[in-house]
Amino acid sequence: xxxxxxxxxxxxxxxxxxxxxxxxxxxxxxxxxxxxxxxxxxxxxxxxxxxxxxxxxxxxxxxxxxxxxxxxxxxxxxxxxxxxxxxxxxxxxxxxxxxxxxxxxxxxxxxxxxxxxxxxxxxxxxxxxxxxxxxxxxxxxxxxxxxxxx
Length: 150
Ligand code: DQA
Fold this sequence. Notes:
The chain is α/β, with parallel strands linked by helices. Helices cover 36% and strands 17% of the residues. It has one domain (3-71, 87-104, 123-144): Dehydroquinase, class II (Rossmann fold), CATH 3.40.50. The chain has helices at 20-23, 28-41, 54-62, 83-92, 130-146, and strands spanning 3-8, 45-50, 70-74, 96-100, 122-125. A 5-stranded parallel sheet has the order 2-1-3-4-5, with helices on one face. The mean pLDDT is 96.
């Protein structure tokens, strides 16, 4: 069975109470339930990991090779700052989809640059929690087409 690692970066544990106008009312556990449902429906396995700690995210991705066939990641603020996260994704070498709840291209200037986008298979922004589901669907379709699997 195809296994996908889903990563939520810093401050996403605060969803539901954090800047609701931008990020909506759903909590992270509620979003995770939607992700798990979609994974079940499309018959793939998912492991979901959230951390506020850049090092923990880097270490988790560092161990992904051979264990997961794809990575779905909302790197949150580290999108715009982290060469370490970029290097971890490059070294894992697995197809990666970057997602954001908000449209990072129509916010502050500093959010327009992503250290991940040019090494990602694709990017989904601006659809709130649906960004995760659309990203997962695209990633799974890609992996099934490519015949990925353990
Ligand atoms: C975010 C966008 C980032 O710029 C921000 O730092 C976040 C959330 C999003 O999902 O829209 O924490 O990744």
